[in-house]
Specification:
- Two copies of one chain form a homodimer.
- Chain A is built from eight helices and seven strands, in the order αβαβαβαββααβαβα.
- By secondary structure, chain A is of the alpha/beta class.
- Chain A has a single domain (2-214), classed as Rossmann fold.
- In chain A, helix 3 (70-77) links the parallel strand 2 (59-65) and strand 3.
- The longest helix of chain A has 25 residues, at 2-26.
- Chains A and B meet through helix 1 and helix 5 of A and helix 1 and helix 5 of B.
Amino acid sequence: MEIKVMKNIMHSNNMIAAENREIMKDKKISAINILASPGAGKTSLLVKLIEVLRNKVPLAVVEGDIAGSIDAEKIDKLGIPVVQINTCGGCHLDANMIREALVTLKPADETIIFIENVGNLVCPSSFDLGEKLRIVVSSVTEGSDKPIKYPHVFQTADLIVLNKIDLIKHTDFDRDYFYKGVNAITAKKVMEVSCIESLGIEELAEEILKCCKIQEK
Amino acid sequence: MEIKVMKNIMHSNNMIAAENREIMKDKKISAINILASPGAGKTSLLVKLIEVLRNKVPLAVVEGDIAGSIDAEKIDKLGIPVVQINTCGGCHLDANMIREALVTLKPADETIIFIENVGNLVCPSSFDLGEKLRIVVSSVTEGSDKPIKYPHVFQTADLIVLNKIDLIKHTDFDRDYFYKGVNAITAKKVMEVSCIESLGIEELAEEILKCCKIQEK
C-alpha cells in the first residue's frame, strides 16, 4: 500500500513538472534546480551568480526552506524577485510548489529562475520540478566521499559544483577520490568554485548560460 | 490519503521503537542516535569517541547509509562490532532496521550502541529508533543558521555537538548567532569539539556516559 501511494505521488509530481516545463519553454524561461546538503553554500553561491548574471538576463529566485525566510531576505536585498516556500517540515520541494511560485513570480520571457531546494542530499533528487538544469553543490568541508555515499543526487545532476575550494588546504579533502567517485557514476562536468575568494564564479555563470541555451531536457 | 498512510507508518515505527527500548532497557544497553548533515563529521567523531570509551564500556556501531559500506569499514578496522544498514535510497533509518541490527549484533549487557543515521538534517528527526540519547552534530563549516533553518532536529535532540571548531577561524561562522538560534528553540546543552585537534572529545565522552546512566526516556 505504501509503495502504491508513493507511485501516485511521483506520477502526479511528474505530470505537474511536465506542465511547468511546457509553460516555461513557451516563454524561454530556464529554471535551475540547486540541490545540496545543509550549509554547502547554496545561498552564497546564488548571491555571487546574481552579481555576474544580473546585467545579462532577467533573474528570479525561489527559496525552499523548512522554516523561516533568512535566505529569501538575502536575495530580496539584492533587488531580485524572490518567492519563499516553507515546506513546514517537508524534506524537498515538489513540482506543485514551483507551479504556484511561477504564478506569484510572473517571470518575464527569458528569465533564469534559480530554485534553491531544501538542504538535503537525498530526497530532493527524486522530485522533478520541471527544471531545465539541475546542479548539485558539494563543498570540500563535507569530505570527498559524498559522490559514493549519495550517488543518486550526483547521477541526476546535469552539473556538479565543488564549493569552498578556498578551505581545501585546511581539510583532509582528497580531490582524486572525489573525482573518482564522480566519474564512477556520471560523466557530468565538475566546476570548482570559492564564493569567499570569488574563484570560478564567472566560469560557472558562463556554463549556466550555455546550458540554458543549448540543453533541452 | 497520503496523510493517513504516513500516520500508519509513524504509528508502526513508534510501536517497534518502544519494543527496541524495552529490549535494550532490560539489558542496560544504551543506543545513541546520531543525526547530522552529510559531511558534518559523524564518522570521524565516532572514531574519536571509540578511542576514549572502548576501555570503559562495551561498544557497538550501526552504520546507516544510502549506499556502500565506507563508514562501517572504518569502524571494523578498530575492532568494534558493526552492522551496515543500506537504505537503498531511503532518507532515514527506522525502528525496524534497528530491531534487525540488534538481532545481528547480539550486544552484551551494558553496551553503548552508536547509531550513525543517514546524513540528513530533516527526515531522520521524525523517526524514533528506540534510542536513549539523540545527538545532533552540526559543523561550523555549515554556517551558523542551521538551528533556525532546521529547528525540528535540534528540538528533538538531547545533546547538540558543534564540530570542526578548529576551522572556525577560516569561516564566517557567527558563534553568538548559532547559540541564539539554539536557545530560541531548546534548552539542550551544546558541546564544541574538533576531531582533527581532539578538542572536547573527552568531555563529550563523559557527558555521554552520564546521560546513558541517568537519563531515562
